[in-house]
Design brief:
- The complex is a heterotrimer.
- Chain A is 73% helix and 0% strand.
- Chain A is mostly helical.
- Chain A has a single domain, classed as Arp2/3 complex 21 kDa subunit ARPC3 (Orthogonal Bundle), CATH 1.10.1760.
- The two termini of chain A are 24 Å apart.
- The N terminus of chain A is likely disordered.
- By secondary structure, chain B is mainly alpha-helical.
- Chain B folds into two domains: 73 residues, no CATH class; 138 residues, no CATH class.
- Helices cover 63% and strands 5% of the residues of chain B.
- In chain B, strands 1-2 form a two-stranded antiparallel sheet.
- The longest helix of chain B has 24 residues.
- Chain B is flat.
- The N terminus of chain B is likely disordered.
- About 16% of the residues of chain C have low confidence.
- Chain C is of the alpha+beta class.
- Chain C has three helices and ten strands.
- Chain C folds into two domains: 78 residues, no CATH class; 78 residues, mini-chromosome maintenance (MCM) complex, domain 2 (Sandwich), CATH 2.60.320.10.
- In chain C, 28% of the residues lie in helices and 30% in strands.
- The longest helix of chain C is centred in the N-terminal third of the chain and has 22 residues.
- Classes of the chains: A mainly alpha, B mainly alpha, C alpha+beta.
- Chains in contact: A-B, A-C, B-C.
């Protein structure tokens, strides 16, 4: 546990571990946001979902509160890193990320990891995010002709979702960090349930 | 700057990454919070400006601010994005036909709508870029948590180089474990890095207030007189 | 009709696969670089594989279906959106039939006003003597037109007629 003398007792450590894990995953969201920012996109104000990858990993690691907190960190952090907090980009990112987070969380918690893997969750999450962004684009940027952008954008979302899902499956199979955190969280959930 | 070596030797050099990105310019001497609030104040004045011409003037001001902030402004993606927005708006014709291009009618109403949207979207992006500096600290517990994320982020960026090539999953996992171990050593005594030289002169702030007044005047004057 | 048929077909396919997937054992698909410490070799091929869960494939198919449907909707009908074209002299105006609009155009006699309302178009008022244009009622189908000849104002509806509607006839 932490050696810092200012921290209180051990059960506080569990909450702080969750918080630290959220912060760490948030950092990777920022990292991926930077990478995503550098990739030239035909539609610069609409976001691809690469930065949602840590969010997908977090699906089984946190209860609902910290999970959506991570989504908030990812959104605001992305706005800070790319310097777009005041623009429509942020609005798109906000709506896309949260709709994606909601869908993924509902599916994963509703159906359980046994019935739905990261591929399905990621695809629906990416699709949901992109659908919401197309709707917003219709209102704010493109007008009626936003629909012409929809099919390739949705298709890209499906492809991204599948790719992210496969990566997540691979990662969770091998990552030691992930398995440790998963064990911690499962035992925490077990303690609460019993 | 403070060097802290965690158990695994991960040097958390705060502000090293952001200092590379930090540019030199008159505007950069204002504290981050001031810039952020200024941007926040300017945003509605820009967004709700009833006159497109006036909005273009504000847009020009934002370009000027970016230049004053020393940020290199790449105009090409801006122009391409604007062209794209205008193009998409022209697809659905509306209003008086100005001319016909390869069978597509270019209409006045659609053109104005496209121009307005392009200026608005790009202007907000420019405003964001100059108002938000990477070392901005947001208030509240969310802000503190974001600050922590940024600290880890700095560390990641410091070593992003040759890690992810051959074995990306293993590399990422090792990095995460390393950062996880390192956090145990650093605790809460880790303070934010040094800010750049601050201007405390009243003149600078007067200029800032005057500028904000100008931006709001650009919004209010058309409201009153048109 | 085409759209409805597509959707039904896709849903049927998806349902079949969902049923089949829940019955069949969990399928292994992707190959990963083996990890020395924790290789998960499931079906004996010696390399770590990803597991697809039962709902993955149906959901992915649903996503693909949604994308395909959107493609059909957007690119199938786009050429046929109805437009209202107003001509006066050598000037031209274009409006959508779907949004209410009031258009004022000036001709040699003065200003004619055309109203687009609820998908129908008619002359609201016109400075001509005989007022034939105003009396000629409304148009709403591609191919139809009304005009104020004295003021040299022509209004027509362009576009491809909807399949389900009867053919356009000009009055």
């Amino acid at each position: 546990m932490k050696m810092n003398p200012t921290l209180p007792a051990v059960d506080q450590g569990k909450r702080t571990e969750t918080r630290d894990a959220v912060a760490l995953l948030g950092a990777f969201c920022l990292f991926l946001s930077t990478i995503e920012y550098l990739i030239p996109k035909p539609l610069p104000f609409m976001r691809m979902g690469i930065a949602n990858l840590p969010l997908m990993l977090a699906l089984d690691l946190f209860p609902a509160g910290p999970f959506f907190l991570l989504a908030a960190i990812k959104t605001v952090g992305q706005g800070l890193v790319t310097g777009s907090l005041f623009s429509y980009v942020f609005l798109f990112s906000l709506a896309g990320t949260f709709s994606s987070a909601l869908l993924m969380f509902a599916l994963r918690r509703g159906l359980g990891p046994g019935r739905i893997g990261f591929v399905g969750v990621g695809t629906i999450g990416a699709l949901g995010s992109n659908v919401v962004q197309v709707l917003l684009a219709r209102i704010f940027i493109f007008g009626e002709s936003a629909k012409y952008v929809a099919p390739p954008f949705l298709a890209a979302g499906v492809v991204t979702g599948i790719a992210l899902g496969v990566f997540c499956e691979a990662f969770t199979l091998r990552s030691v960090w992930y398995k440790t955190r998963l064990a911690e969280h499962s035992s925490a959930m077990g303690n609460e349930a019993s | 700057m403070k060097h802290v070596s965690g158990a695994s030797g991960c040097p958390m050099i705060f502000a090293s990454y952001s200092q590379e990105r930090r540019s030199n310019g008159f505007i950069q001497h204002f504290p981050s919070e001031t810039l952020f609030i200024s941007g926040l104040i300017s945003m509605p004045a820009f967004l709700f400006n009833p006159s497109i011409a006036s909005r273009c003037a504000q847009f020009a001001l934002f370009i000027l601010f970016n230049w004053l902030a020393g940020r290199k402004l790449n105009l090409i993606p801006l122009l391409i994005a604007s062209a794209g927005i205008i193009g998409f708006n022209l697809i659905v014709p509306y209003g008086r036909v100005l001319f016909t291009l390869w069978g597509w009618r270019i209409t006045e109403g659609a053109l104005w709508a496209g121009l307005e949207r392009a200026v608005t979207v790009e202007g907000l992006i420019l405003l964001s870029r100059v108002s938000i500096r990477s070392d901005l600290r947001l208030p509240g517990s969310l802000g503190a948590l974001i600050g922590e994320s940024f600290r880890y982020f700095e560390c990641i960026m410091d070593r992003k180089g040759g890690i992810e090539r051959k074995d990306p999953i293993g590399g990422i996992d090792r990095l995460m474990l390393e950062l996880w171990e390192a956090r145990a050593g650093e605790g809460k005594e880790f303070q934010a890095g040094a800010q750049p030289r601050r201007i405390h002169s009243a003149l600078a702030y007067a200029v800032l207030i005057l500028t904000l007044g100008m931006i709001w005047a650009a919004c209010l004057l058309p409201l009153l007189f048109l | 009709m085409v759209v409805v048929a597509t959707v039904v077909a896709v849903v049927a396919v998806r349902a079949t696969i969902a049923v089949a997937a829940t019955i069949a054992p969990v399928r292994m698909v992707k190959i990963l670089p083996p990890d020395a410490a924790g290789a998960v070799a499931i079906d004996g091929k010696g390399s770590a594989m990803t597991a697809l869960r039962p709902f993955d494939i149906p959901l992915v198919l649903l996503a693909v279906a949604i994308t395909l449907v959107s493609t059909l909707l957007v690119y199938g009908n786009s050429a046929g959106t109805a437009r209202v074209v107003v001509e006066a002299g050598n000037r031209e105006w274009v409006y959508s039939l779907e949004n209410d609009e009031t258009v004022s155009v000036t001709g040699p006699l003065g200003t004619s006003t055309i109203a687009i309302h609820n998908g129908k178009v008619h002359f609201e008022e016109s400075p001509c003597a005989n007022q034939v244009c105003v009396a000629s009622g409304t148009i709403e189908r591609p191919g139809q037109w009304i005009a104020c000849l004295p003021n040299a104002v022509f209004v027509r509806i362009e576009g491809i007629p909807d399949e389900d509607e009867p053919d356009a006839t000009s009055r």
